[in-house]
Design goal:
There is one protein chain. The protein has about 325 residues and is of the alpha/beta class. It folds into two domains: about 45 residues, Winged helix-like DNA-binding domain superfamily/Winged helix DNA-binding domain (Arc Repressor Mutant, subunit A); about 250 residues, Rossmann fold. The chain has 13 helices and ten strands. A seven-stranded parallel β-sheet has the order 1-10-9-5-2-3-4, with helices on both faces. Strand 9, helix 12 and strand 10 form a beta-alpha-beta unit. The chain is elongated, with a radius of gyration of 26 Å. The two termini are about 40 Å apart.
Amino acid sequence: MNLPKNSSTGNIPLEELRLITRAAWLYYIQGLTQTEVADELNCSRIKVTRLISRAKSLGIVDIRINQPPGFFVDLEHQLISQYNLRDAVVTLDVPNGEPLRRALARAAVEWLTPNLNGERVVGISMGRTLAHFPEMIEPGQKTGTTFIEVMGASDSVNSGFSSYAVISRMAQLYGGQARLLDVPTFVSNQSIRDLLMGEKQIAERFEIARSCDILMTSVGTVDEDALLHQIGYISEEILQQLQKQKAVGDLLGHFIDQKGRPVPSPLDGRLMAVQLEDLKRIPYSVLVSGGQNKIQAMKAALLGNYVNVLITDVTTAQKLLAQS
């Protein structure tokens, strides 16, 4: 155990320095417990604790963790600390677009699968990233998980990103069951929405969605690339109105500003989805998103405390951390 060049050990008596070094050697190199080190050195366990602590502060002990390629524990820990999260997963950078969506979907499924213990209820949102979930799942599992929509289905159920198609396939692959809300994402007016929400069967399904154990979602943007705009739910006029109101993104069709505060939308009275406040009560509310165009919306979702687990890529993680 060589002393580093910058070690401040010059003023420490030689015998004391030898004792500190020996305690560190026995503990870190020989693998003895602190009690065993105390027996070896004929001193108390409390003194051993102090000796080991001094070894670290003096630079005699230099602890390093060599992370395997593709693991970013430091970034994950910083995200958890800065945004008060329960968990975070950071994956390798890949090009934006479909490659990034697939990489994030794979990381999300790898996080989700070991968490499907017991009879879990998992809510799945609509999104282009979440649409890749099924292709990342190993078939033939028997989890007993219930997968449920957390917002109504897109009119285009064959478009590839509808939660209707995604949860049906996920339930099949995981050996669980799918629960569909059997309502569209948006209805014609608030009267129809209120009528549907008053139906017992629909109300019961929404109650299951609101009380799910895990909810997986992405975040939408407020620009020309926004999914809700692409599939025709948001007109150019409404998009411009939302931009004037300083909306930066949406969660489950609910729009938020840069601080995560709700932004009123002409669509609110027509939307069939779990509410923003419901997200805060779900044990694991998981945001799966990444890319330069999503950073502002992601930060808003984090600041609003709507999610408590984040799955993203390295560059996005670094930029979220830089924006304190």
